[in-house]
Amino acid sequence: MQAIATVPGVTLLDSEMDADHNRSVLTFAGEPEPVMEAAVRAVKRAAELIDLNQHRGEHPRMGAADVVPFVPVEGVTLEDCAELARAVGKRIGEELAIPVFLYEAAATRPDRVSLADVRRGGFEGLREAIGADPAKQPDFGPGRIHPTAGCTAVGARRFLVAFNANLNSGDVRVAKAIAAAIREQSGGLKHVRALGFSIEGGRRAQVSMNLVNTEATPIHRVLALVRAEAARHGAAIAGCEVVGLVPEFALLDAAEHALQLENFRRDQVLELRLRRPPLTEAVPIATFLDQVAEPTPTPGGGTVAAFVGALAATLPAMVAGLTIGRKKYAGSEEAMRETRRRAQALRLRLLGLARRDSEAFEAVLRARRLPQATPAEAEARGRALAAAELEAMRVPLESAGACLEVLELAGEAAARGNASAITDAGVAGLLARAAAEGALLNVQINLKSAAPSADKNEVEMGLQRIQAALGPAARRCLDAVHAALSA
Q1: Which helix (H) or strand (E) holds 91?
Q2: CATH of the domain at 38
Q3: Distance between CA atoms of residues 195 and 372, nearest Å
Q4: Which of 20, 218, 272, 400 would staple 436 via disulfide (CB 3.0–4.6 Å)?
Q5: Domain count, the chain
Q6: pLDDT by residue (tens digit) across 140-195?
Q7: Chain centroid to CA 343
Q8: For 217-241, what is each residue's pLDDT tens digit?
Q9: What predicted TM-score, i.e. pTM, was given to this entire model?
């Protein structure tokens, strides 16, 4: 662990030591370069400490550092991780003289995508095969196995959940039968790898699983099949365990299923809501930007358009503030006071619309997920979806109308405000027009996807009205800006 923890820029997140499996799982994270260095150091230290000729355990293994997977967490893709795996594999092979096999997303050939295929035979079998069997030629490193450290699989994959079900039986044959029934390789559940082991000195049997895609095959579905298969053999699940770390969404999926929650939203979880609070003036800009950048449907373009409109509204208020009280602009003072009042009101209104835009689209997603197995359910779903889709059109239309008002205020500020701040009025106009057009794009796409029965006439008329008004309002604003600049 020290080999990892002492690398600057790397955080050791978790360590699991299992006596039955005689296996350690270390999880660490950081920027690519430090993580690569930590991985190489960890493999080097494992090679110094572990002699596989003396090592025994339930879990299959072929190396002192058996497997080094790179997993995308944030800001990197799976292909980025595959490149890191290739670079680390090359270093391990060249610097430590340990044969390396690339697997999963980093694999160089189809028969090495699966870790089970790469590892088949284990240390003892691969000791004989590497150097003799051309199919076992490593991707990096010498053409012979390391005498004590074996060989290492280095790859890139999505997050894997190591999940074990312990039985109330010591009969390992039952665990093996259950594993064979549930794993994908034997015709069971997709994305499930499973083996049966004996643990606690033979007192209990365990179904040890790697769940490689818990979004497609969630934990609760796997557990239900394990429970059913165990019952067929007269056994039951005594308890379960997670080895290492588990993504939050995987546990929430299981909780939703177990509690039979209806119309549940993830942001009802307090900690998640605190992490992604609804947009208000109290939310830091960085938090909002992080939320937009996340791979989730909301907040999306409609929310951003309304937010940009609110940002644009701050500038006419600023120009008005720089005009009020100046003798030179005494004739404009009352108009600028009204401009400032309206701009401040529009700023608050647009922030509220930004929040409503996300809520409206989330309501559409919830309506789409409603059951429709019976005619009554289908009718209820249709009504809910039509109402949600109509709201999802009305909110960005209202945002576009508010942005048009900001654009008109920017023109007023440019025509009658402090000439020293003329470009600020111009920026407000440009932002407001862009925000309005962005909001209208959301209206258009929502109109296109709405059911034929939806009441679209009012929305379509509003869309045409705002589109027609945007060009002239933008020209008036820019004409006033250019006139002041050339005066």
Answers
A1: helix 78-96
A2: 3.30.990.10
A3: 38
A4: 400
A5: 3
A6: 999 999 999 999 999 999 888 999 999 999 999 999 999 999 999 899 999 999 99
A7: 36
A8: 999 999 999 999 999 999 999 999 9
A9: 0.55
